Amino acid sequence: MNKITWKKRVQYFIDNVMSKGAIPLICVLFSITLIVVAIAGILSVFFQADGSVGFQMWRSTMHVLDPGVLSNTPLDNIPYTALMAFSTLCGIFVTSILIGIVTTSFEEKLNELRKGKSTVLEERHTVIIGFNDNVYTLLNELIEANSNHKNQCIVVVGTQEKEEMEEMIASRIKDFKTSKIICRSGSLSEPHILERCSVERSRSVIINVYDDAETIKVILSVTSYLKDKKLLVEDLFMTASVTDPQNVEAARIAGEGRAEIIYASDAISRIIANTCRQPGLSNVLVELFDYDGDELYFETIPELYGKTLFETLNMFPKAVVFGIRKEDGPHLNPPMDTVLEEGDQIILLEEDDGSFELGGEEFPIQKDLMVHRERVRSASMEKLLILGCNSMIERILEEYDLYVEKGSRVKVVFPEELGLDNDKFKNIEIEQVVGNVTDRQLLENLLQEDLGDVLILSDDRLDPEASDAQTLLQLIFLRDISKKNKKTFTITSEMRKSNNQRLASQVRVEDFVIGSNIINLLMTQIAENRELTALFEDILDEEGSELYMKPASLYVKTGVPVNFYTVTESAGMRGEIAVGYKKVIDGETEIITNPLKSEEVVYEEGDSIILIAED
After folding, report:
1. Which long-range contacts (CB under 8 A, 24 or more apart) does 224-227 make?
2. How far apart are CA 38 and CA 64, in angstroms?
3. How far apart are CA 309 and CA 323, in angstroms?
4. In contact, 496 and 468? CB cutoff 8 Å
5. Is pLDDT at 218 greater than 90 in this prediction?
6. CA distance 416 to 132
7. What are the residues whose beta carbons fall under 8 Å from the beta carbon of 64, sequence distance 6 or more?
8. Distance, CA of 460 to CA of 198 (rounded, Å)
9. Which residues of 447-472 are buried (b: 16+ CB within 10 A; e: fewer)?
10. Rounded to an integer, what distance in angstroms lies between the CA atom of residue 592 and that of residue 605?
11. How far is CA 416 from CA 37, 62, 388, 435, 462, in A?
12. In the chain, is it the N or the C terminus that has fewer CB atoms within a 10 Å radius of its CB?
């Protein structure tokens, strides 16, 4: 066995001390200084210097701390002078090292602060776990939601470096209003990262992760972390979205009652299926789901107790009644004779929480302009051309099948055989054309037929930018073909990134569906009010009441000015709630939700009323 030399022992000791940080190093330097001072003081007495050992140790200390003292040392005692010079050199050496240690420690601390390793001390903040392209929509909505409250905080945690996240947020969001954005870096599911974000003192958590498995992992981690913590907000909960139906229940189980899960693929499929039949519908949904404009709130108004839902519809000059919240939860457009009882809340679409004005019970209803006739359904079957395909196609077709007349035709264009089974559907007949969706000649041949609607689906085999670029090319071809051949059809386009919508608007598409954007809006709304989950499910569900656009001529006379009190009354008599209207002016579509009821509008043929109705 090799003998361990004293040199190796010293090196090992120094390595251990160096690895322990600044404080042990300072202690070692302090010890060295004491030893030098003590030796110098003792030796000074032997060199026949004046004074006691203690006095000489003090003089030696002064030489160590202040090199200028050496100039006052007498030269008549050379050994003593040399000893003091040695003490001064030791002092310079120790002081230099000490300055280096302090400087390095200070820089390390600054770097640590820049990397976001300190614990957030905010309270009742919102935590977003996961940093990706969706975070900007989430932040914008939360900033808007917080704008009427002071000193709000949003904590974002991602695997990227803190400085990188802050720079990217600053480049995309210019006005934070009353909100402060704090970024933290680290693994998304580690307990110490959750502690660093003070999750237990937050009011809600949004899980912003693309992958379902990772989402469930983060839900499990947050649930486990919260079990041992005293919560500032007892009903603290998480909001997350998953794309696979079999993961929905797994995510809810992992949340143990603290997670609101949005089945993203299902919600987007329903929106696309309904939008391609009712162009402009996705714009209405965005108006309902975002914080720019009017939002849905639950209001307690004792003055309404004892009144029926129908009696309350026109009592709000600038708000729309959506339904009633009772003990068993929210009810979207319940029967008009439903009575509000003590403890019930009215569901309002209004500018801000509590911003409603309660009017009287006399309304300027223009009864002579009201129309009472049923919609005559066209005997012709609907025809839909779908360009492209993605993983949601079957769910979209299933939803579309629920609303169209039997015998309606759907033609799907895709480069590969899809194997869609007609036996799965009751009302639609599916035909597939194998071909390139960006082949102009193929598109011209397809559009020779009499088509009503065209739906462009994004290709999820491509990355978002490439998929949207392909969609834009199709839109250019379709609009050019429509113009040259004088063909009229509506176009609904699915986009993957919201920044590409601005480019697509140049070709005048009737509607866009940006799935990730809508899901992010839903998540933000639910994060602010958990009870909105059930209400949004009702709005998107095919059962019960949903959003529809019906001809204005079914409710009021066209060609004459009519106020929205009259529209609301006419719709209410049918068991429907008027939310707004859609006007077509010079080929441009205008969507208005929650209009001022006293404002008069001239409706023409082709204009629609936006309603909450059962069919």
Report:
1. 224/191, 225/191, 225/194, 225/195, 225/199, 225/200, 226/199, 226/200, 226/258
2. 12
3. 8
4. yes
5. yes
6. 31
7. 33, 36, 37, 87, 88, 90, 91, 94
8. 37
9. beeebbbbbbbbbeeeeeeebbebbb
10. 17
11. 87, 88, 10, 8, 15
12. N
Alpha carbon 314 to chain centroid, angstroms:
34
| Mean model confidence pLDDT for the chain | 85
* Token couple for 602: 């001239």
Q: Dihedral sign for Cα 276, 282, 285, 287, please.
A: negative
User: Which residues is 200 bridged to in the sheet?
Assistant: none
pTM: 0.79
Interatomic CA distance for residues 452 and 410, integer angstroms: 11
Q: What percent of the chain has pLDDT over 70?
A: 87
Handedness of CA 301, 304, 308, 312 (dihedral sign): negative
> What three-state secondary structure class fits 13?
helix
Joined tokens for residue 494: 């699915």
Q: What is the rounded average pLDDT of the residues 167-178? A: 92
Q: Map tokens 């209400």 to a residue.
A: 535
Question: Cα angle vertex 186, ends 185, 192, to 5°?
Answer: 115
Euclidean distance between CA atoms 251 and 234, whole angstroms: 21
Residues contacting 441, CB < 8 A, separation 6+: none
Residue 291 identity (one-letter amino acid): Y
Residues in the chain: 615
Task: Pick the closest to residue 241 from 269, 210, 270, 268 (CA basis).
Answer: 210
CA–CA distances in Å: residue 245 to residues 29, 418, 443, 449, 526: 64, 21, 34, 37, 20
Tell me: pLDDT of 178 over 80.
yes
Q: Which residue(s) pair with 102 in the sheet?
A: none
Is 2's pLDDT higher than 60? no
Q: How many CB atoms lie within 10 A of CB 574?
A: 17
- Give strand ranges (E) for 407-525: 408-414, 428-434, 453-456, 490-495, 511-514
DSSP 197-239: TTGGG-SEEEE--SSHHHHHHHHHHHHHHHHTS--SSTT-EEE
Please compute the mean of the pLDDT values over residues 178-203 and round it to a whole number: 93
Least reliable range by pLDDT among 77-91, 210-224, 233-247, 566-580: 77-91
* In contact, 207 and 178? CB cutoff 8 Å: no
- The upper half-sphere exposure of residue 444, i.e. CA atoms within 13 Å in the direction of its Cβ, equals 9
**Which residues fall within 8 angstroms of residue 529, CB to CB, at 6 or more apart?**
297, 298
Residue 379 is predicted with a pLDDT of 42
Token readout for 3 is 């003998």
For residue 202, give the nearest of 228, 239, 234, 225 by alpha carbon.
234
- Other beta carbons within 10 angstroms of residue 406's beta carbon come to 11
What the block records as the tokens of 533 is 């989950």
Higher pLDDT, 217 or 26: 217
Would you give the distance in Å from CA 496 to the centre of its chain? 15
Of residues 486, 491, 493, 490, the one with CA closest to residue 448:
486
**Count of Cβ atoms closer than 10 Å to residue 157 Cβ:** 29
**Whose CA is closest to 202, among 251, 258, 134?**
258
pLDDT at 580 over 90: yes
